[in-house]
Amino acid sequence: MSRPVAPPGGSPPPTTATLAGEEIALTPLAEATADRYFGEFPGDTARYGEAARAWEIHDTLHCLQWAVLDVGGFADIEREVAWLANVLRSRGFPLEQLARNLELAASVVDEQLAAAGAPVAERLRAGAAVAR
Asked: pTM above the 0.90 mark?
């Protein structure tokens, strides 16, 4: 019998980031990404239970922040995504779904942040390539 997946614990993920001198709210971006993700992967709710959406938003918030920090030269999203992919692989999570999540996040950023978000979306797509 497998144990239910616990919701994220510890330090909360980032909810804002500074892009080109402007503070942006990451939570609406992560929530929109989660809506699209579960539209494509509804089985994750059954597989991971109530914690599925919480983990989806938690990990996406981190990925969004890494992308913004990468654009500013303060992080390397490819290194961070490689680390996350190793963690998720060890837990049996399909890495193609991580890659798709990053692509969905890039689309959300393109739509909601317009031209200012283009470099962030590009970095998210680079992260998707690493996850594959």
From this structure: yes
Q: Which residues contact 104 (CB under 8 A, 6 or more apart)?
A: 33, 36, 37, 40
Residue range of the domain that includes 43: 25-131
How far the first Cα of the chain sits from its last, in Å, is 30
pLDDT digits (tens, 9 = 90+) for 93-105: 999 999 999 999 9
Q: CATH number of the domain that 100 lies in?
A: 1.10.490
Residue 32 lies in a domain: yes
For residue 88, give both structure tokens: 């998720």
